[in-house]
């Protein structure tokens, strides 16, 4: 009698334990690339307060619970009867997906519409693969949204490398490396995560515009420059570079970031009606930002090319503004990256204080505003939110995908 199961091939039986372990590791690696490691997803869920995680393994148990006749597929009547169970309703509610929650509607027309969306093959029944694919798509979209928001907010703690050996605190070096790749002003042009809304191309255009402003400002304040060989003159020139180049560059960088990345317009696609409006606003603002930035980047690139050509022809006649240019860029880099980013946010000696009084008054409030010890603070917060006394495994169980 046919069992309906796929026969096991001889090649599978010939696999050794090492080869079988390699296949399992490859599958786990592919899953991590698509969705992320369990630790990273649990931390994302904790820091974004998304405890309504989508359990893609649990979706199979829900399918079996609804499939009362055990034939491997769900009919419209089976789903209508099955969603009345309390366990099924709780699972659907926790997904927070509007499309899937449509199964709980009493309106027959809306219920049938949701059934057709899950039935990707349009066969009139929902197979186990259709059900799993739909729930997994929701899980991937939720992880994508949480990761995008973490990247846009410059999150320091990602839960990477927790099982690897580290030079100090577990995961510190891996998180530091990931943060540098995504936020360094120059390395991010080549190593930024592809999921980052502020893409490498956008970062390159923004950097060209910043360099062009630095060039123009250096030329304009060239007449105010004093002799670099004296202490007084060097301090005077450095103050000029900070006031006219460094601080405006920091402001310009933030403006370009918000203009191109649109962090306030990011949203999770859950099947809501207003998501069409959200998507249109996001696309329109992104298009508008690029219409403004890309021509400016081309003009800036041309200005830089002309300035470099003139400097190459007669370096001694244009050395003054070149020194101001370099001084302004170096001050901006040292102030924004090693000092405010790495030394402050990734320091382990002086972590941030979570107490309300300390955050609002005195030096601790300024320390908190500067983000000092942000990595340690986010690590402590994620651990406190993800682990509870009742279930020590909750840290890794929010997203069982």
Helix-strand blueprint:
Layout: H1 10-13, H2 17-34, H3 38-47, H4 58-66, E1 73-74, H5 76-82, H6 86-95, H7 98-101, H8 108-118, E2 126-127, H9 128-152, H10 172-183, H11 188-191, H12 200-220, H13 231-261, H14 275-313, H15 319-345, H16 356-360, H17 362-369, H18 374-386
Helix pairs in contact: 3-18, 12-13, 12-14, 12-15, 13-14, 13-15
Pfam families: EF-hand_5
InterPro entries: EF-hand-dom_pair, EF_Hand_1_Ca_BS, EF_hand_dom
Protein name: EF-hand domain-containing protein
Question: Could you describe the 3D structure shown?
Answer:
One of its GO terms (molecular function) is calcium ion binding. Pfam families: EF-hand_5. InterPro entries: EF-hand-dom_pair (IPR011992), EF_Hand_1_Ca_BS (IPR018247), EF_hand_dom (IPR002048). Residues 54-89, 106-141 form the EF-hand domain. By secondary structure, the protein is an all-alpha fold. It contains 18 helices and two strands. The chain has a two-stranded antiparallel sheet with strand order 1-2. The protein is elongated, with a radius of gyration of 28 Å.
Shape: elongated
Report the span from N to C terminus: 35 Å
Give a short account of the largest sheet: 2 strands, antiparallel
Helix content: 55-70%
Secondary-structure-derived class: mainly alpha
Along the chain, the helix and strand elements come as HHHHEHHHHEHHHHHHHHHH
**Unreliable segments of 5+ consecutive residues:** 1-15, 355-369, 389-401
Q: Could you give the count of β-strands?
A: 2
C-alpha Rg (nearest Å): 28 Å
Number of helices: 18
Largest sheet: spatial strand order: 1-2
Strand percentage, roughly?
under 5%
List the domain count as a whole number. 2
Mean pLDDT equals 71
GO molecular function: calcium ion binding
Keywords: Calcium, Membrane, Transmembrane, Transmembrane helix
Pfam family, one: EF-hand_5
Protein name: EF-hand domain-containing protein
